[in-house]
Amino acid sequence: MSSRKLIYFINPISGTKGKKRLIEWITFRTKKENIPFEIIFTNKEGDYSFLKNKISEEKITDIIICGGDGTINKITSFLLNVAVNVGVIPMGSGNGLAFAAGISRNPHKALDIIFTEQAKPVDGFFLNKHFSCMLSGLGFDAQVAHDFSHQKKRGLLTYIVLSLKNFFASKNYSFTIEVNETTIQTKALFISIANSNQFGNNVTIAPQASLSDGLLDLVVVTKMNRLFTLLVLLKHLVQGKIEEHSDLMAGKKGVLYIQAKKINIQNPELAPLHIDGEPVNTELNIEINVVENAFTLIQPS
């Protein structure tokens, strides 16, 4: 019998047909590995406060999350400073954390990683009291997240349509940003705070970001002509990079990219906010702090 003991978390609602096959495959593969396991369905409330005691009492070694970035966020927020490894079988719309960590979207290959690879510490961060394990933001992309959450039919195509719609309809918001002992006042289409290097689906937004470098990557797309902004962003995203422009500190228009451990954002116009792709109530003042080695993630070497 293996020294490992696993809990799989699965959303019981989304993709019911594929979910049944996934449960069958998980059961077959884990039994074949001779590893004790339990399958638990996720809950609407996102309350996993029972986990800490369960892990300790039952000697659970691994929590495997079958879901997207929002589900990963909710569960890992209850695993900070808990001695357990986290595995991921990506099943979301974007799967930004999985892509950043090199975890395959193919559930068979994702299970191979869980059974054969090692866990390594990854960072997270707090926006006031909200924990984020991947990427959070204010403005345009947060509005997309809010609209996306109300759609009956989800998926990449729905996300693209909403993104294009909001790109030209969204306003530029006023922000005051305090970072690295510098204060920046600007209007911006959106602000991304990244621990992962991407939005998801291999769309890179923060090319220098690392899951475990102890730094956050701040990306600010400032007020520009919308069509020009779209073309610039598409060029950067296709090339997989957004260059750092230090001259933006002087107020020029473009893309601002800064790495830091701590960021403060004043949000007087109440730009919408998302945490790991999930909409949350926005706030006037947002203190952002990195959490080094927030949890350990099973990922390719």
What does this structure look like?
The protein is of the alpha+beta class and 301 residues long. It folds into 2 domains: 6-117, Probable inorganic polyphosphate/atp-NAD kinase, domain 1 (Rossmann fold, 3-Layer(aba) Sandwich), CATH 3.40.50.10330; 130-292, Tumour Suppressor Smad4 (Sandwich). Helix content is 29%, strand content 34%. It has helices spanning 16-32, 51-58, 69-76, 96-101, 107-116, 140-148, 156-169, 226-239, and strands spanning 6-10, 37-41, 62-67, 85-90, 119-127, 130-132, 135-139, 173-179, 182-194, 198-200, 203-204, 216-222, 255-260, 262-266, 273-275, 278-280, 285-298. It has a 15-stranded mixed β-sheet that branches. It has a two-stranded antiparallel sheet with strand order 10-11. It is globular and about 60 Å long.
CATH architecture of the largest domain: Sandwich
Please bin the fraction of helical residues. Answer: 25-40%
Give the CA-CA distance, first to last residue.
25 Å
The total tally of domains equals 2
Query: Which band does the percent of strand residues land in?
Result: 25-35%
Number of helices: 8
Q: Any idea what the radius of gyration is? A: 19 Å
Order of helices and strands: EHEHEHEHHEEEHHEEEEEHEEEEE
Which CATH class of the largest domain is shown?
Mainly Beta
**Low-pLDDT segments:** 236-252
As for the CATH topology of the largest domain, it is Tumour Suppressor Smad4
Total number of strands: 17
What's the mean pLDDT score?
Answer: 84
How would a textbook summarize the main sheet? 15 strands, mixed
How would you describe the shape? globular
Oligomer: single chain
Q: Which secondary-structure class do the elements indicate? A: alpha+beta
